[in-house]
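Before a colleague's protein record goes any further, I have to sign it off. Thanks in advance; the entry in question is below:
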Amino acid sequence: MSSLTFLGTGTSHGIPVIGCACPVCSSSDVRDKRYRSSILVRKNGFNLLVDTGPEFRLQALASGLNNLGAVLYTHDHADHFNGIDDLRVFSEEQSLAVYTSEAVRLSIESRFPYVINGSSMGIPHLDVQVVTPYEQIAIGPFAVTPIPILHGQQTIYGYRIDDMAYLTDCSEVPQQSLPYLQDLEVLVVGALRNWPHPNHYSVFEATALGNLLKPERVFFTHLSHKLGHTELEAQLKDGFHVAYDQLTITMKDRL
């Protein structure tokens, strides 16, 4: 069986938000404490990470992560990207494979040039590979397909990993991407808040996508402090769930 661990389920602010005393930020429910969004997928001893937010070191420690096979990047916003330095412990003996878009590759080169073909000790050594939209590749035991989605005016990548799809920071799924999201076991999709946002799905929109694609299970992530875990979970119909940090679910492996 493969597994999916939610390393973080929060927005770019994280929760609690600095200086905020709203009911969610002051909640005693540990499920309302959210690091920036990221996931870890495991299968046959191979660990595949999606995004490295600012708390990646803390997320890795909390999940007991001690080896890493590869990294996928969805886009280069700080809350999904700026933990890149903490990949160094996973690339001391050989370069760590990183898969992403050409835009993110260029961002890595300009913002963190020392991680590519670096020879010094104490820095990450990354082998950055550009993937082609809709072209399935094998990464360890996983079949991975990069799927273009919209994040406001920006096109970023969601990923289909076997029969799970991860669509964080999504404001629209282009029509041409929908065929690659059929017959899912698990859909993970961002659901920022209850009312519209120009760059992110609302709960209503994320629910509509789940109803359209009809996966076996839907998990909402990238949640703001306007959404409390218990209250949101109570509103959802069967098959829809609110993810929380360090939640681990199992998934069926492909035959």
Q: What stands out?
A: The chain has five helices and 14 strands.
